[in-house]
Amino acid sequence: GIRNLSDLKKVAVIGHGNGGTVYKVHHMKNHSFYALKVLRFNENGIGIRQPSMILEAEILKRVDSPFIVKCHAVFDNGNCTETDNGDDLSFVMEYMEGGSLHDVLRENYRLPEEAISLLAKRVLEGLNYLHGMHIVHRDIKPSNLLVNDKGELKIADFGVSHIVEGRIDATELNAGTCAYMSPERVDPERWGGENVDEFAGDVWSMGVVMLECFLGYFPLIGPGQKPDWATLMCAICFVEKLEMPEKASTEFQNFVRRCVEKDWRKRATVKELLHHPFVNRKCSCISKGLENNECNFELDFGRRRKYFFLHLART
Ligand code: ATP
Ligand code: MG
């Protein structure tokens, strides 16, 4: 196990999110790499820390699934030498070398349906696990879907987003944070208030991400646009039906439609979607390495990242 934050040496900054920074760190005793997410709670950070947060962080450590990025340890305040701030929460996570789906999508690359099908299956398996533990992810989006060295895709940052959420005034949320939110999360009053089934929100977000994988751009707003908060809110709340790409198979179109059903009561559940023909397709792989029920995709993306390598075990 990881006992001390001081055993971890920061190697590089991987990226910044809302109120946090993610570092690549090296554990000096067991000689392996981890990702360290540090949430900063002070006047410059994400507001006041609540006592419940450490409890929620404890739940994180109990989550153990091949479809979820593992959280190995949580440090309160952190005996970390580099921070003199007493208000940090640090999460030691499994390091995902391959980066996120966001890295692929921001270059406007599109994924073939075969890849999306396997990807959707993994996300659904992950959500099925979390929902089974009565955990709502609340922040399914491309930057929270990570790929490791083996090419396995996993869900990251559930719970962390929960901890962060509610500490920020809604109007301060940047567009990136709410782009994948479901209509009932954006406007709960209209959709049943307290009675809203929060699990349905994760399904919506996943549907939007899968459509984005197909199109290569954020589907609620046309390509090439950088949406502001108000535009996004309107798109989510007022668009009656999302237009499906003509080139997509009917299976895929139907799958996405079942996810982005505006009324959460009519939306498909994770369990239903696991049986959907789109995610249970016979895979005709576009790349080498087809073995048993495993499937490798090597998508050549040119310039920035030579390969986005997805190894998606069919379950
Ligand atoms: P948000 O704060 O809303 O979650 P975000 O996901 O972009 O937004 P972070 O979660 O802080 O922000 O992540 C910052 C960057 O670090 C992202 O590019 C993300 O893909 C990457 N990252 C996060 N966790 C890991 C990990 N375990 N391994 C490798 N990279 C990671
Ligand atoms: Mg994240």
From TrEMBL:
It holds the Pfam family Pkinase. The keyword ATP-binding applies. Keywords: ATP-binding, Kinase, Nucleotide-binding, Serine/threonine-protein kinase, Transferase. GO terms for cellular component: cytoplasm. One of its GO terms (molecular function) is protein serine/threonine kinase activity. ATP binds at residue 37. Residues 8-279 form the Protein kinase domain. InterPro entries: Kinase-like_dom_sf (IPR011009), Prot_kinase_dom (IPR000719), Protein_kinase_ATP_BS (IPR017441), Ser/Thr_kinase_AS (IPR008271), Ser_Thr_kinase (IPR053235). SMART domains: S_TKc. This is Protein kinase domain-containing protein. Belongs to the protein kinase superfamily.
